[in-house]
């Protein structure tokens, strides 16, 4: 916020718990972390602090993909300035 400016910075938090991320992992990083091949894996070996007051919270555990996308677009599209 300090670098970009209050008007241009918007914190969007996409929430998914560790098991959901493991299930959705297309790159196999969670399997590598489970096998000990990735050290300091966020949420497992090193902590992760959720934002306390994001400008937008997308909770992928409670929303469908379509609902999450619609929520994101409803937040972002009105804030987009056309490039002159």
Number of strands: 2
Strand order of the largest sheet: 1-2
Could you give a short account of the major beta sheet? Answer: 2 strands, parallel
Number of helices: 3
Sequence of secondary-structure elements: EHHEH
* Gross geometry: extended
Please state the CA-atom Rg, rounded to the nearest Å.
Answer: 16 Å
Helix content: 25-40%
N/C terminus separation: 24 Å
Low-confidence runs: none
Nearest-integer average pLDDT: 89
Structural class: alpha+beta
Instruction: Classify the beta-strand content into a percent band.
Output: 5-15%
Question: If you had to describe this structure to a student in words, what would you say it looks like?
Answer:
The structure is a single chain. The protein is α+β, with helices and mostly antiparallel strands and 84 residues long. It is built from three helices and two strands, in the order βααβα. It has helices spanning 18-24, 29-34, 65-76, and strands at 12-15, 56-59. Strands 1-2 form a two-stranded parallel sheet. The protein starts with 11 loop residues before the first strand and ends in an 8-residue tail after the last helix.
